[in-house]
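Quarterly update, task 2.4: pyridoxal-5'-phosphate-bound model.
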Amino acid sequence: MTLTKISYTRPSITELEVSYATEAVRTGWGPKCYDYIYRFEGAFREFTSTQYAAATSSCTGALHLGLAALGIGAGDEVIIADVNWIASVAPVVHLGATPVFVDILPDTWCLDPARVEAAITPRTKAVIAVHLYGNVCDLDRLADICRRHNLILIEDAAEAIGSQWRGKQVGSVGRFATFSFHGTKTVTTGEGGMLVTNDQALHSMVQALNNHGRLPGQNKQFFPEVVGYKYRLSNVQAAIGCAQMERRAELIAGKRRVFQFYAEALKGLRHIALNPEPPGTVNGYWMPSAVFSKESGVTQEQMLKAFVAAGIDARVFFCPLSSLPMFKAKPENRVSYDLPMRAINLPSYSEMTEADQLRVVGVLKQLHP
Ligand SMILES: Cc1ncc(COP(=O)(O)O)c(C=O)c1O
């Protein structure tokens, strides 16, 4: 018997998304061409308890706009965790600033605040706190460090829909925060992003830069005053986003259900740690992941081989960005250079069956010493 392949993620699309997208295609033109965009932004303001939201064509674009609007550029340093996806750092590089990669904590897999503080120099301008795989960064300590050193805290919440800090969706602590609606994300528009902030001036600058540099108050047609960008989300994509936002509780609950099933099934296996949920936080569990202990001796190669053999589409953990060819290696980031090599992302999507989850659990148990 051949088993069907288990993909690592899958969007949840219902008649609601289809009906909104259809309506946008039929009627969302001319004077109505921004209606779903405004509605999607409104839903996001409410969801994140922030005052301003700007929909974008990707989270990468949202980060680029936000950093540019803050004036970050050549000569500036931006601190970021070494273990990350390249999207969080590419805009820093595009703007001519220097990323400074610091180590992660072994339990949260996110920025180590003590390492952040040690990496600050007179050129440091900002800290990007990425809530990796839905795990919440230590925002209290990071916000305190940024306050004391007069640095800008930015939250990259691309992977953190449904993750909460002190009872609130993450994304309202930093000067701005960004989200991703890529097809793999908990709330999706295929491709898409959002920037949220409580800073009105920053929001105006983001909107102006996202409109090819046409500044607010400028009434002359086709008269940009700075060279800007064009990272706009389309109305049709926003229509899908509106439907997903109406269903967000169900989508987040689906992710959490999948995680809880893994956690229960793997309980007692002392060599496996899953995503943490420290007191005061809720984890949206975008990407449930298993980290084997050092003592287990389990390697990434063994994990991939076992998952492939079982017809399961497992993903490797992000490698340290500083190990990529365009950056300078920082093996002194000891956790970043070790933990990903014994970790693996597990398949999860809201409609995943328990039978499929048991197949994943079976592989992990088989690998466990
Ligand atoms: C942490 C993080 N930041 C930024 C991004 C970029 O998102 P997008 O693909 O919407 O540009 C991703 C994408 O997965 C991500 O994981």
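Highlight for this quarter: The chain has a mean pLDDT of 97.
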